[in-house]
Amino acid sequence: MLWPSLQRDFLLSMAVENLYRPLWSSAILAELEEHEARKLRERGVETAPAARRAGALVRAMNAAFDDALVAGWEPLEGTFGLPDIDDEHVLAAARVGAAGAIVTDNVRDFPNRCVPSDIRVLPATDFAADTVVVSPERARQALETMIGRYTAPAATLTDVLRVLETRYGMIEAVDMLRNT
């Protein structure tokens, strides 16, 4: 799940700690770039700088996870019978990349009858809990490292845990992190 930004930062920070391996396609990154640029424009950033910042985010993600980009998914797009044809590229990339899970809060658009049995479809709350439980200590280190990058405005561990819990519903993951 690459949207919203704090949730993305938290999940990708755990990937940096090797708690899981992220995968995405060029189409997934294009959607992220579009949403990120739109968010920035809605917050008052001019169009060109918003596009540059969104592009920089995608480039940084590709640089940090140079093995995450799945190629060759296009022939499978449209073959799964998903209710929303616009989600087909996600499942195609997951299949080609041998992903164990698709992380989305749009679970209903990935019905079990359409998704291969070796791919789980999980909301971000469940994925976060499943990932934190692998190593709560490394997950907390990932979170603390992430928070250390926040300077404008600065954030505390307590602040970020509260947002993950209240805004994103990551109650189980946050409980494990608080108790670490």
Structure description:
- This protein has 180 residues and is mainly α.
- The chain has eight helices and two strands; from the N terminus they run ααααββαααα.
- It has helices spanning 5-16, 26-42, 47-64, 88-96, 124-132, 136-149, 157-166, 171-178, and strands at residues 101-103, 120-122.
- Strands 1-2 form a two-stranded parallel ribbon.
- The protein is globular and about 45 Å long.
Distance between the termini: 24 Å
Radius of gyration: 17 Å
Spatial strand arrangement across the major sheet: 1-2
Provide a count of the helices.
8
Main sheet attributes: strand count, strand direction, barrel closure:
2 strands, parallel
Order of helices and strands: HHHHEEHHHH
Overall spatial form: globular
Structural class: mainly alpha
**Strand elements, count:** 2
Mean pLDDT: 95
Contiguous runs where pLDDT drops below 50 for at least 5 residues: none
Helix content: 40-55%
Strand percent estimate: under 5%
Annotate the secondary structure layout.
Layout: H1 5-16, H2 26-42, H3 47-64, H4 88-96, E1 101-103, E2 120-122, H5 124-132, H6 136-149, H7 157-166, H8 171-178
Parallel strand pairs: 1-2
Keywords:
single chain, 180 residues, mainly alpha, two-stranded parallel ribbon, 8 helices, 54% helix, globular
Structure described in brief:
By secondary structure, this protein is mainly α. Helices cover 54% and strands 3% of the residues.
